[in-house]
């Protein structure tokens, strides 16, 4: 089985959408391996967003992901589980996300797009190690 990281970002937690997001993952047949409601500290967030360091929006990303609790999930499923999750999420911009996707149905802002999912198997491994080192 493959694993990937999903983060219900602070806006999803604040809007009470965590249950809906988890429900969509489980209805797709994916299994929750770990879940933790946690306020992400700045150091962990900086590691998570290291690829964006130096970009104009980097500090806004850190401010957003650390502003209030997020629900961190490790999800398990068939090969390329990360790809399945990203399809369920929809495009980053909720205005472009089709109906039926998390962002298409529930999202309103590009900068607060509800959910993060790893973008490759390698990213999933690195991100799970960052947030759930005991599972690595």
SSE topology:
Elements: E1 2-8, H1 10-14, H2 18-27, E2 31-38, H3 42-48, H4 58-66, E3 70-77, H5 81-89, H6 102-106, E4 115-117, H7 121-131
Antiparallel strand pairs: 1-3, 1-4, 2-3
Structure description:
Helices cover 41% and strands 19% of the residues. It is α+β, with helices and mostly antiparallel strands and 136 residues long. It has seven helices and four strands. The chain has a four-stranded antiparallel β-sheet with strand order 2-3-1-4. The chain starts with a strand and ends in a 5-residue tail after the last helix. The model has no long low-confidence stretch (mean pLDDT 96). The protein has one domain: Nucleoside diphosphate kinase-like domain (Alpha-Beta Plaits), CATH 3.30.70.
Structural Rg = 14 Å
Count the E strands: 4
Instruction: Give me the CATH superfamily.
Output: Nucleoside diphosphate kinase-like domain
Outline type: globular
Strand content: 15-25%
Helix content: 40-55%
How many discrete domains? 1
Calculate the mean pLDDT score and round it. Answer: 96
| Low-confidence segments | none
Here the CATH topology equals: Alpha-Beta Plaits
Major β-sheet profile: 4 strands, antiparallel
- Briefly note the structural class of the backbone: alpha+beta
In N-to-C order, the SSE pattern is EHHEHHEHHEH
List descriptors.
136 residues; alpha+beta; Alpha-Beta Plaits; 4-stranded antiparallel sheet; 4 strands; 41% helix; 19% strand; globular
Summary of the model, kept short:
The protein is α+β, with helices and mostly antiparallel strands and 136 residues long. Helices cover 41% and strands 19% of the residues. The model has no long low-confidence stretch (mean pLDDT 96).
